[in-house]
Structure formats: structure tokens, C-alpha cells
Amino acid sequence: MSTGQVVTFDLFSALIDSRTGGSAAFATLARRHGWPVTGEQVYDAWDPRNKAAQRDCPTWEPWRGPALRALVAAYDALGIGGDPARDLETLVGSMPGWPLWPDVATGLPGVAERHRVGVLSNVDGALFAATAAAGLVDHDVALTSERLGVYKPHAEIYRRAVVGWGPLVHVASSARDVRGALESGIPTIRLRRPGHELDPDGPRPTHEVASTVDVAAAVSDLG
């Protein structure tokens, strides 16, 4: 990989279609438990609660902690039963099969020809290593919340990334990540993905692109 500019990507929105992968896992659980809801409905109940649980962590704890609290809350909101702790392991076990967005497998190597490509993600190292994206990035720049000791969108995770690895460009899709990176002073490229919109009250990135194929040029344009 290149030893040039460090470019980090968010893992579960910019690189991986987490809603498709997670919904499939929850669909399996819905059939197992006989739930009257779809896998998509369960994912859509769990995912924002998981993000909120990470945001509300006063100090870092392993990914499964906030994820489990969010799953319990999602089950309560939907009025469904199950074994949240066991069901979470089913979700985790499905993560290696969560699909990359269609442009990633061909587009990311092109970025890596010119820049050091990593991730900046709210995930534990072992979970990252099992994903389909792990083989496409520089593991020295796998900046997980476990490694940095804090969850996004707290400003400290972005600060620690810069302190440890120098000036970087972050590629994000979710509103909280775009806003968090920009408000921390990190040049940010928004990679448009279905289901993600900008925070209407937040700062606007200089560049927005539709594919990882366009990221290298956007990084160069940032200077």
C-alpha cells in the first residue's frame, strides 16, 4: 500500500451495506422466534438505538455492551420476545457475510494506489478483522473505537486519530460521522449511500462523491 496521505473510511456505512447484512440476520431471528415483524423493522429499531448507546458511553466499553442494551430496547419498542444476548451473537456471527457496497471491491484498491487506506470505526478489532472490508485496508490504520478508546461522534476519537497517525482525510456517509469529523477539524469527504443524509443543522463537507472510485480525486483536490 501507498505511504502517502492517510484516508480513513467509516466501516459500516461507507464501505459495508450494514442494513442489508443486519436485516438478513434479524430475518433469521424473526423466523426462529416467530416474530410478526420483518428483519428490516428490527434492524431499523436497533441501529439508531445502538448509535445512541455508543454516543452515551461515558468511557469506552466493548462493542457488545452498548449493542446489547440497544437490542433490549429495540425488542421492548417492538413488543417482541427473544434472548437478546444470544441473538446478539447471531448478529455478530453474521457480520463476515455483510456485503460491501458494489463499488468498494474495485474502487478501494484504486484509492490505495495513491494513499494509505484505513478505517475509523465504532467497532472492536476482532469484529473489523472478520468483515469483508478487512482485506482491502491497511491494518496499521485500522482505527477502531477499541484501539482509540472512545466512540464516535465524540471529538476525542477524531483527535486521537490525528495525534497518532497525523493529518488525515475521513470518508464518511452517516450524518453523525460527517458532522463529528468536520467539527473536529478533519477534512471530510461525504460518500453518498442509500439511507444516509447530512445533518441539516451541521457543517457541510467540501466534497461529496457517489463512489469510492471518485475518492482519490477528491482527496487530491483537497490538497
UniProtKB/TrEMBL annotation:
Cross-referenced InterPro entries: HAD-like_sf, HAD_sf, S-2-haloacid_dehalogenase
GO molecular function: hydrolase activity
Keyword annotations: Hydrolase
PANTHER family: HALOACID DEHALOGENASE, TYPE II (AFU_ORTHOLOGUE AFUA_2G07750)-RELATED, HYDROLASE, HALOACID DELAHOGENASE-RELATED
Name recorded for this polypeptide: Haloacid dehalogenase
Species for this entry: Nocardioides euryhalodurans
